[in-house]
Design brief:
The chain is an alpha/beta fold. Helix content is about 35%, strand content about 25%. The protein has two domains: about 5-60 and about 375-425, Urease, subunit C, domain 1 (Roll); about 65-365, Alpha-Beta Barrel (TIM Barrel). Helix 2 (about 100-120) packs parallel to helix 3 (about 135-145) and helix 11 (about 325-340) packs across helix 12 (about 350-355). It is globular, with a radius of gyration of 21 Å. The structure holds zinc ion (ZN). Zinc ion (ZN) binds near residues 68, 264 and 316.
Amino acid sequence: MKTYDLILENMTILTMDVEGTMIEDGIIGIENGIISLIEKQKPDVSFSANKRIDAKGLIALPGFVNTHVHCFQSLLKGLGADLPLIGWLNKAVQPFGVRVTHRQQELAALLVSLEAMKSGTTTLCEFFYTNQDPELADLCVEMMRKTGIRSVLMRTFQDYGEEYNVPAGYVEPVETAIKEVERLRQKYASDYMISIWTGPDVTWATTKRGYEAILEYCLDKGVRYTMHLKETPEDDDMCRRHYGKGIVELLDEIGFLTDKFLAVHCVHLTRDEIKTLARRGVSVSHNPAANLYLGSGIAPITNCLREGVNVSLGTDGAASNNTTDMLDTIRLTALIHKGACYDPTAISADQVIRMATIDGAKALGMERFLGSLELGKKADIVLFDPSRIKSIPMHDPIATIVYSSSAENIDTTIVNGEIVYRKGVFSCGIDEKELAWLIKYELKRGGLIH
Ligand SMILES: [Zn+2]
């Protein structure tokens, strides 16, 4: 009899494959972190397993892929309310970001990863930009790895920005940034749970030379890259003043718009710019909560989808969202675009779940092994319990997950075949109350709270 490392049985499986296959009374067998059995349970066939979960009444779905987070901002929840982006950056975020300590960075990465796993996320993309101390990036990676979450560290850079009050400690020549990215890539080259990316941080903190140099490096080494793009109208203003054209036009001119590029926000894209992104195969990370919190606007996501742009979802940093909960972002995405378009058919629950799973995996170039529950793919799986008060009764599993759920529904989170969270307990051994106390102590010590 075949023996699996882990068997999940008796649950409904939302595979999120191309056909949208749903399997009632399904079974999943996992071997070496890979899904090596997925089918309808047969009464006359039994398998042995080192570990078994009877998931009767639960729904198995692919873990969420959060394509945009800033870990250190998780310590700033609730600060900086009612400010526009530049003011919010200068008053609430940068003063802390420039003096974030090693311990604070560790605790922040821990907090983000645990909140993410508790709300169904299995892959987390950290957009890292507090580059005044190289060790901060290493500590961030180490802490994400410790929790068992799959992660991408996007070590970005800023080579300009005095006129926008970019802290001097962040600014560095692009060559320094490339050396640092290469160091991190070498250090984690053999770790399949972490990928290292790079990219410019934002338009007003990057020179044309910076774009060209990082692009050359990325294309040469096969490194994927990201950037905040057109979050606010200022993105274009700065570029027009310095280079006489809008940022999308400039990026296209230098060949920056490729299928290796993940553009974050894209709130102020024009129709022509959306067409350009679609033509070049650029993916978008849509972060609706941050866009609403900072009053940046509502990204033209339905137009992006119509033009064939691959759209993924991100929570953004908790300083502009106040949470790292993807279920919250999923619901918000489904609702705001119906409202913005005055059309309830503008975006469907199924489309939004796809954005949070398989399309997120596509945005990372990982769709061959992540984002759906299929034979041979990595076992990044969430078990969703619909028997919680908010979700009763369930008529349609996808509608329930999108509109009537919270982190309370997440029963179990599995990453690479390992149970990282189950029924309120994190496998890494961190206790929530203890973490809350540690963070409070550290913030008090750092003078952020009294
Ligand atoms: Zn961001």
